[in-house]
Amino acid sequence: MPAGYVRTWISFLEALDHVERVAGCARQEACDGLLAALRDSAVHGRFADTGEVIDPPKWYRAEVYRPGSVAFPHDPTDRSQLGRWPSNRLVELRREDVERLWPTEPLSIADLDPNERLTLSKQVQLLARTMPEEHAKGRIDKAFRFRELAYQPEYALAYDGARIDWDSGRVILPRIPRQPFTPTLTTAEFVRHFMRSGLGATEAPRTEATSAEKSTADAGEPQEVTTERAMALHPTGIRTTKDERVEAACGDWIAAPTERPRNKETAFADAKAAVAHIGALSRKAFDRAWARRAPPEWKHPGRRGGN
Questions:
Q1: How far apart are CA 220 and CA 231, in angstroms?
Q2: Dihedral, CA atoms, 300, 302, 303, 306, nearest 10 degrees?
Q3: Fewest Cβ atoms closer than 10 Å to its Cβ: which of 5, 33, 104, 268?
Q4: In the 8-state DSSP scheme, what is residue 53?
Q5: pLDDT interval class at 140 (50, 70, 90)
Q6: Which band of pLDDT confidence, cut at 50, 70 and 90, is reported for residue 301?
């Protein structure tokens, strides 16, 4: 390989290490950020063995394994895949996309004045150096509305209905619409709350040492990215548990254009088989999914022919 050559594509594990190091965040947060960017098409991915591009919607069902491989559970509406276990595959991400969202040389804390007062818009700009801008805006918005920090000036009014101009950082509260104000924090307060390891951290602490037992774990079993299994995100952006993913997949299966099942019990048995690769489907979860997604005519006894 020529000296100075830079690969266009890097492995998922390399990308994860890069995000964790540059953002100064925990392993789980780095994984969540990468998956969100892949789902939004902000980062492009492909299968390492074939070079086939991975469609962004596939990342909603992705399960990340410790060695850096990824499994994509089958679409529950695809009956041809019933009974087949999804295989783990190595994937690659486009380096340019990853480094654009998580720059290799982020701003250092040493370059900032700890006493400078930062507007909401400036806070988003700084935080966006470690994560996608929309995620940064969401974190700042939540911190302000729920008073996680003491922004100045401060009013004894509810902030949940505040209208924020993200370009200027000005805020208007419904109770005092003629008194717009610009809330600020000091740089020191901002860094302590949002940048646990600093803006320009060069090394992120590991949350868990890899034991000899875990390093030899069966590659066929999902491995935690940190101490918790990597969790998926629905298109709404709400983090869900495994049970909720199973229920959502069951709803997709019910809503698929199929013939009406013989009865609800048969439908329950078929649905359990269809989503088994994601997890066990409980009867309560099935009933909730049935109530939401089943066609109206399925919920009532149909007219049966007779002699």
A1: 18
A2: -130
A3: 5
A4: B
A5: very high
A6: low
CB count, 10 Å around CB of 23? 25
Task: Record the pTM.
Answer: 0.40
Q: 151 φ, ψ to 5°?
A: -70, 145
- Amino acid letter, residue 60: Y
Residue closest to 19 by CA, chosen among 137, 103, 88: 103
- Rounded Cα distance between 53 and 172, Å, is 45
Residue 37 phi, psi (nearest 5): -65, -35
The tokens of 77 are what?
């509406």
Which secondary structure element, helix H or strand E, spans residue 279, and what is its range?
none
**SS3 for 46?**
strand
Q: Cis before residue 153, ω within 30 degrees of 0? A: yes
> Among 8-12, 132-136, 202-206, 275-279, which stretch is predicted with the lowest mean pLDDT?
202-206
Nearest to 95, CA basis, from 15, 196, 188: 15
Tokens (6 digits) for 173? 């509260």
Residue 73 has a pLDDT of 77
User: If phi over 0 gives left and psi between -120 and 50 gives alpha, with beta otherwise, what is residue 90?
Assistant: beta
- The rounded distance, in Å, linking the Cα atoms of 127 and 140 is 9
Dig out the tokens for 200 from the structure.
Answer: 């320009």
- In tens, the pLDDT along 71-110 reads 887 655 555 555 566 678 889 999 999 988 887 655 566 6
**Cα(70)–Cα(79) distance, integer angstroms:** 22
Q: Are the CB atoms for 24 and 3 separated by under 8 Å?
A: no
